[in-house]
Amino acid sequence: MIEINEVTKRFKDKKTSITALKHVKFTVEKGQVVGLLGENGAGKTTLLRTIATLLTPTDGSVKVAGYDTQKNPAEVKRRIGVLFGGETGLYDRLTARENLEYFATLYGLSKHETKVRIDELARMFGMRDYLNRRVSGFSKGMRQKVAIARTLIHNPEIILFDEPTTGLDITSSNVFRQLVHQLKRDGKTIIFSSHIMEEVSMLCDHVAMMHKGELVYHGGLEELYKSEGSQDLNYIFMSKLVRGNETYAS
Amino acid sequence: MLRKIYVKEIKDCFRDRRTLILTVILPIIMMSGMVFFYESMISDGEGETYQLAVKESSMKEAELIFSGVENVELIESSNLEQTIKDGNAQVGLELTPSFIEATQNGEEATVTVLGDSFSQKSTQLNAILINALTVFEKTVVAGNLLEGGIDPSIMQPFTIEHKELTNEDPSVDMIAFLIPLILSVAIGVGSGPAASDLFAGEKEKKTMEALLMTPVKRSTLLLAKWLTITTIGSVIGIITLGVVALEISLLTESLKNSVSFGNDAYLIIGIAILFSMIYAAFTASLIMITSIVAKTIKEAGSYSSPALMIPMFPAMIIVGIGINELTTFHFAMPIMNLYTLFKELLFGIVNFEHILIAFGSNIVCMLIFFVIGRILFMKDKWVMN
To answer: Where are the beta strands (DSSP E) in B33-102?
Structure first.
């Protein structure tokens, strides 16, 4: 479903060059929920942006549902929904409904499809009461719900969440976790980055660990527990990082 | 798709109070201020009465000299300087004792005039005063010559006839300078917030990333946003010109008499509106670039402010050039041609060659700026923070 093939991403300016991704290679199969783990600056967001066609890889390629992200970005975009955490990215002067209608239009949904989909999402997230209110007066939780609904408006096969629960209260975080379970049941492919290990172990069946732009582990969560002899993802993550640092040091 | 994005952007922009205020209220206030200021300036002197402070000892003779001057009120004063300082008179006058008798007898006589050259009213009264004294001087000289048996015409060996070739009315010239200036400022200031919001604002609010994640082409997004800024600028241009036309025709007398388009009125107004729309499109392309390169709305404002100051400079150059001195260069230079074309139109001149040159040069520059904007918008570096 998603093939990340030896992807390297370098950011250059006049004086410096930063390699955010170094030969990252892994595959995500249809219906998998993959947790992307890593410290700040590990390259998680860069990788998600590259998959989402927002960034061009310096080397390597990414294929989504068989389409190359560079050669067929429009086909990739139709199949992907992205939510970058902490940033809800909504138009404050429009109502929640108008925001959703606008993005439905951009994804090419018909009027009827848009109406049905908005009703469905409003029911799913309990947004009916404030659907026709301007977003400017919304709480962070309400905004996050509308932003998730916008991500799902075109019913994408693949969903990328970048630290989606950042800044959310417990209730809203739980709503999000329930949503991921629901999407998993619906057979969606999900990659989400997070710092919260409990969240990852609760929601994901696979993990990809990143350190300084490199992929240090990718595989099933159960296999990881078995190979490391521990069920503590936090401990496993830290030990992987230590091993990664030793590798860099040597 | 373009239409749908455009409709959303327009709706979003007009829900912004800043845009609404700058689009509708600002042009009305600026144009109303200009119209009433120039109406009062042009009508200055018509029916105006000036106060001339006259020394007590000179009062009777001053009354004789100024008997034919209607709009000068003589005020008797013991201290001329104080009377002027108190604002009770604009000019002071003192004549030597027995002034009229002395001048008729060929004795030495002096006129002392006190005035304030920084005051417009004082300068105007001074001119009236000098004129009246010159007339009196000529009468005295003519009387003296006649007494001596000499024909007074000997004092005037020739007459000067001055024919004014230009039909330029100074008041129209002032309006021709100010209307384009206010128009350019109103279009720039009014469409600026929308331009900042549509690019830098979207980057700041992170809606740009969500937009770029949709399958819509970046060119379509850019075009829709540019059309939105152009529309706002055009609306401001039309409101500005509409307000000035309505106020001049309904609320002024002197200005209305100065500006007369004759049979070409609708054509001139139509060309003015069309040109203001093209100028709005040109401005939109320019400020769009400043917004694309900025990361935040504040930064976009910092970049666009100098760009919006540019129209001030051609105004300074054009103000001293007569309408018959305008060349193709003046019509081919964007921004400058806003002033030159409006100057011609306000004097009732419809020169299609000049109009085409002005329209063409603005469209070419607009396209160049648009292409630069497109190149920037296609690059991730400028689109995402």
So the answer is: 50-55, 72-77, 91-95
Would the pTM count as exceeding 0.80?
A: no
B123-152 burial by CB neighbour count: b if 16+ within 10 A, else e?
Answer: ebbbebbeebbeebeeeeebeeeeeeeeee
- The per-residue DSSP string of B89-102 comes to -SEEEEE-TTHHHH
Residue B310 is predicted with a pLDDT of 83
Quick: pLDDT tens for B192-243.
888 998 999 988 888 888 888 899 999 999 999 999 999 999 998 898 888 8
Q: Do A105 and B4 touch (CB under 8 A)?
A: yes
Enter the tokens of residue B262: 């004759």
Residue A76 has pLDDT above 60, yes or no: yes
In chain B the first and final C-alpha atoms are separated, in Å, by: 26
**B381: how many CB neighbours lie within 10 A of its CB?**
10
CA atoms within 13 A on the CB side of A156: 32
Q: From the candidates A53, A56, A75, A91, which should be mutated to test the interface with B, based on the most B CB atoms within 10 A?
A: A91
Report the b/e string of B252-268 with b at 16+ CB within 10 A: bebbeebbeeeeeeeeb
Amino acid in the structure at residue B289: I
Interface test with chain B among A14, A50, A93, by most B beta carbons within 10 Å: A93
Q: Which tops the pLDDT comparison, B364 or B10?
A: B364
Which residues, numbered 182 to 221 in chain B, qualify as contacts with chain A under a Cβ-Cβ cut-off of 8 Å? 205-216
Let me know: does B211 contact B221? Beta carbons within 8 Å.
yes
Closest CA to B89 of B121, B67, B111: B121
Query: Does ipTM surpass 0.90 in this model?
Result: no
Q: Nearest residue on chain A to B220, judged by CA atoms?
A: A106
Strand partners, A159: A81, A190
Whether B103 and B63 have beta carbons less than 8 Å apart is answered as: no
CATH for A2-43+61-221, options being 3.40.50.300, 3.40.50.12160, 3.40.1400.10, 3.40.50.360? 3.40.50.300
Residues B368 and B228 in one domain: yes
Q: With an 8 Å Cβ cutoff, is B5 touching chain A?
A: yes
Q: Where in the sequence is the domain holding B114, given as residue range(s)?
A: 50-155
Give the residue extent of every domain in chain A. 2-43+61-221
Minimal C-alpha gap between A99 and chain B (Å) = 9
